[in-house]
Amino acid sequence: MKILIAEDDRETADYLAKGLTESGMNVTVVANGPDALFHATQQQFDAIILDRMLPAIDGLAVLRMIRAGGIATPVLLLTAMAKIADRVEGLESGADDYLVKPFAFSELRARLNVLIRRPATSAMPAETVLRVRDLELDLRRRRVTRGGSPIDLQPREVLMLEELMRNSDRVMTKTMLLERVWEFDFDPRTNIVETHISRLRAKLNAGFDTDAILTVRGAGYTIRTE
Amino acid sequence: MKPHLPRSTFGLAALASFALAIATILLGGIVYFVSHEALEQQLDHRIAAETGSLKAVAEQDGLGALAMAIARREDGHNTNGLGYMLFAGSGTKVAGRFDAALPRPGWHELLPFHDAREGANVAQALATPLQGGYMLVVAADRTPIDEIDRSILMIFSAAFGAMLLIGIVCAWGLGFVVRRRLGRIHATAEAIIDGDLSRRVDRDDVPNEFDRLAETLNRMLDRIASLLDNLQQVTTDVAHDLRTPLARQKQILETALETDLDADGYREAIRRAADSSEEILNIFTAMLRISEVETYQVREAFRPVDLSEVAERVADAFRASAEATGHEVALDVDAGATIAGDRHLLAQMCANLVENALRHTPSGTRIAICVQRQADAVCLVVADTGPGIPPAERARVLQRFVRLERSRSTPGHGLGLSLVAAIARAHFAAIELSDAAPGLRVVIRFDG
């Protein structure tokens, strides 16, 4: 996995580079806009972590130029401000995801993993049925079965399961699920995700020995393919 | 340097009076010209009429009769300011006392003559040839015209001078008054700059434009003072509310440093310290969100939002957690209640209200979320059956960092409802806290 990190804050860049290298990724670090633009256009990366504020050429401008150049590499935008307008602007400029500083490394890694489209282990987008191990989700009829027996789920529980199944083997964090299932861009102080996961888990696990959803401590939830 | 018009009060007043003086001169010139022309015409008319009547006498009764008529008019002092001369073909004057040389036939504007009393003078005259080479001259004295001309000039010169004088005095007076009034405002502003924020501009007893300006300035100063007070208050509150988790963090870390712990013990201490940082960051996030919403820039991104769908989403999100703590979440929405807004902020507003109800009510409380479509408005109502808020404290809980005494022990930073209030204001919505008998009812009314 080749990752480009464009971040002018030395400490953040080192922290990211160290963490990602330890996760087995090949990391290139640049500290300004022109370098980011040069590397992004000259080499093939699996993902780009781009700080919104970069010297010489602003991160957003770099992003627009990369996209205008027809480069579709997934971009995770980092920002120091949680401004609503910034978020909209970032996504409109072609960012695939958006993370506000300060963030936990586990959050960044989880988002990065979801951004990097690995050869599908679960389902192609065009398919109408998602299959992970003994779980099946009929995308059109919104029906779920485990080991062939139907499971009665609420619409939003199906949505949450769909997110987990589409990203099987990758960790979905609480904030990612909040964003994708309920479209909440804020962090409620109530344990919404935990409660919903435990309900979903109870419904999926009834009558089975293995846990359908795994909790990754300090990070989030995942569904394993094996 | 580019020349420019004066901008001081004195300069403007001086310019205005100078313009008035110029206007006086112009007016004087016009009056002079018009009256002069009218008098001349009148004079010409008289001369022509007299010439006509004398000519008729000569044609009817002969030159002798003409000479007689002239003599009669002159003797009887019946000349009406006119003078007469009758010249024979040889150029010899045969009648009339008017003393001038033989003129050429026709009109003469300024015919020199000798006046018995005033000496050399000029007159308006008409020389008319008669039969037998005779020449009749009727002349009129121009003195009356000159006298009127002179008095018109005199009057307007005096008026011009007076105008200039009055103008200068007015300009000076006006400048003095305005400068004195502005000086008072200036002095107040200087005092405020030097730190005395309580100073206000002096007011008059009678209404006038200076007084209105002073009133507006004072209101502006009141507003600034209240904003500063608010800022001061918020700064103090922020400092106070950040102090608690920061102090806790410091204490956790120091204790861990001073104590010999095993790896798990240290990990636990670090985890607790990290939780404190999380709490501090949450306060910052909430504050930044509030100040962002309060700038109203978010309005630029407003789109039609289905408030019913937002309420359903929020109810769905919180229902499971609410049931886990023994609360009940009920949803009653009119379908398709659409307003202009920011769907993320509206979801956060609704979520904050529900969370607030969850946090401050005991187990067994029912929380109802309603979206009502009315003729001219859409209302979002979140009501609980909990203990409610005393009427006196309802307005206060919308302010930043305000936490009622009985909720001091529960987690939270006192910013949830102030964010609700800020989001409501950004959406031009009115927020009202009332008694749900029992419990608290929050109504957010979006006027359509």
TrEMBL record, chain A:
- Keyword Glycoprotein in annotation: no
State the superkingdom: Bacteria
Q: Which residues carry this modification: 4-aspartylphosphate?
A: 51
Cross-referenced SMART domains? REC, Trans_reg_C
Q: Which GO terms describe its cellular component?
A: cytosol; protein-DNA complex
The entry's DNA-binding region: 127-225
Which ranges carry the OmpR/PhoB-type domain?
127-225
Query: What are the record keywords, sorted?
Result: DNA-binding, Phosphoprotein, Transcription, Transcription regulation, Two-component regulatory system
The cross-references to PROSITE patterns, in alphabetical order and at most eight, read: OMPR_PHOB, RESPONSE_REGULATORY
What is an annotated GO biological process for this record, any one?
regulation of DNA-templated transcription
PANTHER family registered for this protein in UniProt = REGULATOR OF RPOS (PTHR48111), TWO-COMPONENT RESPONSE REGULATOR (PTHR48111:SF76)
What name appears for this protein in its UniProt entry?
Two-component system OmpR family response regulator
Species of origin: Sphingomonas leidyi
UniProtKB/TrEMBL annotation, chain B:
EC numbers for this chain: 2.7.13.3
Q: Which residues form a coiled coil?
A: 210-237
Chief place of localization: membrane
Question: Which class of enzymes does this protein belong to?
Answer: transferase
Q: Name one GO cellular component term.
A: plasma membrane
- What domain of life does the native source organism fall in? Bacteria
Q: Which InterPro entries match?
A: HAMP_dom, HATPase_C_sf, HATPase_dom, His_kinase_dom, HisK_dim/P_dom, HisK_dim/P_sf, TCS_sensor_his_kinase
- Note the Gene3D superfamilies from the entry: 1.10.287.130, 6.10.340.10, Histidine kinase-like ATPase, C-terminal domain (3.30.565.10)
What CDD domains does the entry give? HAMP, HisKA
Location within or outside the cell: Membrane
**Reactions the enzyme catalyzes:** ATP + protein L-histidine = ADP + protein N-phospho-L-histidine
Key words, A-Z: Coiled coil, Kinase, Membrane, Phosphoprotein, Transferase, Transmembrane, Transmembrane helix, Two-component regulatory system
Q: Which parts pass through the membrane? A: 12-34, 152-178
Keyword Membrane part of the UniProt annotation:
yes
Has the keyword Kinase been applied to this entry? yes
HAMP domain span? 176-229
Q: Which ranges carry the Histidine kinase domain?
A: 237-448
Q: Which GO terms describe its molecular function?
A: phosphorelay sensor kinase activity
Name it: histidine kinase
- Species assigned in the record: Sphingomonas leidyi
